[in-house]
Design a protein that fits this description.
This protein is an alpha+beta fold and 373 residues long. The chain contains nine helices and 17 strands. A hairpin with a 2-residue loop joins strand 1 and strand 2.
């Protein structure tokens, strides 16, 4: 229970409240920092213990060994072939490390972390008693939310999404002077259930926004998400996730061989693209719909939204060989025109001015026959 589900106009969607009656109005207010978005489709994992940060540093893609209290970042868990298995926002308060994850990945990630503990002095727990609420920083809503945030060790738990800029040790493949992610100062507060209920009861009706509004802002910012952009083939390079979730000069971790190889040699097998969809038809494509270049299928949609300024937009994972021009999305037998904006270039890493990495794994793994990079 969050309390938001009892507000007038609340309409349930997959994983949470889809909207409160007017998704476009909610989206505009959310973007302006004047609304809060209950994120029922996310969950929290608490990692405690004196060795937690060094341990997480050794098994994930991000450098978190010296993460300062109150500092935010994100990490990926990769398989031995460098493919994304789990993703999490990371916040430490000096006593515990808090992982913000998509709800469907909470138990699998917690199970994997527990299995990897061995003798490490750390504990792992999915905190089903806590709620997550999103806000865009800079407005009155952020101040309201900060006052309600959980602070078990004296520091309010508010994760600042690092997507606004390239993180230390990261690299951006998108060849664009003004990245749309720079405009989204996204924050997620961890809130106790009773505080969430009280917060919802105190809000004016126009100060709540649903998941549709939050997702539209994410898609417009080209921000990848585990629940949407990740499948069993995903490499972090393909969605420009090295920008914030991978530290290219840290020590060994599982999957680093592939991260270094693809970054050094270039040509990830697939690439993320932003699509502006033809809005003249009432049909809105859905994630999973195929994308065509002429008669050839070249990929599929991963996220779809209606943006309050840009109209129907989407993210798509395409074959590296997909052309950079206009495409077509096929949904229920209807072809929808799509104007493409390249996010990850087909030659990402190969011709870009990127730092060349030493392949640091102590035990190089044999090439995976499925690896087409």
């Amino acid at each position: 229970m969050t309390g938001f589900d009892e507000l007038d106009g609340a309409v349930a969607g997959e994983g949470g409240i889809a909207h409160f009656g007017d998704a476009f109005r909610e989206q505009r207010r959310l973007a302006a920092g004047q609304a809060l978005a209950p994120l029922g489709d996310r969950a929290v994992i608490e990692v405690a213990g004196p060795e937690r940060l060094g341990w997480l540093d050794s098994i994930t893609s991000q450098s978190v060994g010296r993460l300062a209290p109150g500092e935010s970042t994100e990490l990926l868990v990769l398989d031995p072939q460098g493919r994304v298995e789990h993703a999490a926002g990371v916040l430490d308060d000096g006593s515990s490390t808090w992982l913000i994850v998509d709800a469907a990945d909470a138990e699998p990630l917690a199970t994997w972390l527990t299995r990897m503990k061995f003798r490490t002095q750390a504990t792992v727990a999915v905190r089903d008693d806590l709620r997550l609420i999103g806000v865009v920083d800079g407005g009155s809503a952020a101040q309201t939310l900060a006052a309600a945030a959980y602070a078990p060790h004296g520091s309010a738990l508010i994760w600042a999404d690092p997507w606004q800029r390239v993180s230390a040790g990261g690299h951006q493949y998108a060849e664009i002077a003004e990245h749309p992610g720079a405009e989204l100062a996204w924050r997620i507060a961890i809130v106790e259930e009773h505080a969430s209920v009280a917060l919802a009861a105190s809000l004016p009706a126009e100060a709540a926004a649903g998941l549709l509004a939050a997702e539209a802002l994410r898609v417009a910012a080209w921000r990848p998400r585990w629940a949407s952009e990740v499948d069993d083939r995903s490499l972090p390079h393909e969605s420009d996730w090295i920008r914030t979730a991978v530290h290219l000069s840290k020590g060994c971790y599982r999957g680093q061989e592939t991260v270094a190889k693809v970054h050094n040699l270039g040509h990830p097998p697939r690439r993320l693209a932003a699509l502006h969809l033809d809005g003249s038809d009432a049909v809105l494509p859905v994630p999973g719909d195929p994308v065509y270049a002429g008669d050839e299928e070249v990929g599929h949609l991963t996220s779809v939204a209606r943006h309050h300024e840009d109209g129907p937009i989407a993210l798509a994972i395409l074959s590296r060989r997909a052309p950079a021009g206009d495409l077509t999305v096929r949904t229920d037998g209807v072809d929808v025109a799509a104007s493409q904006q390249v996010i990850v270039p087909a030659d990402a890493g190969a011709t870009a001015d990127v730092p060349r990495l030493t392949r640091l794994s102590r035990r190089p793994t044999a090439p995976d026959p499925r690896d087409r990079s």
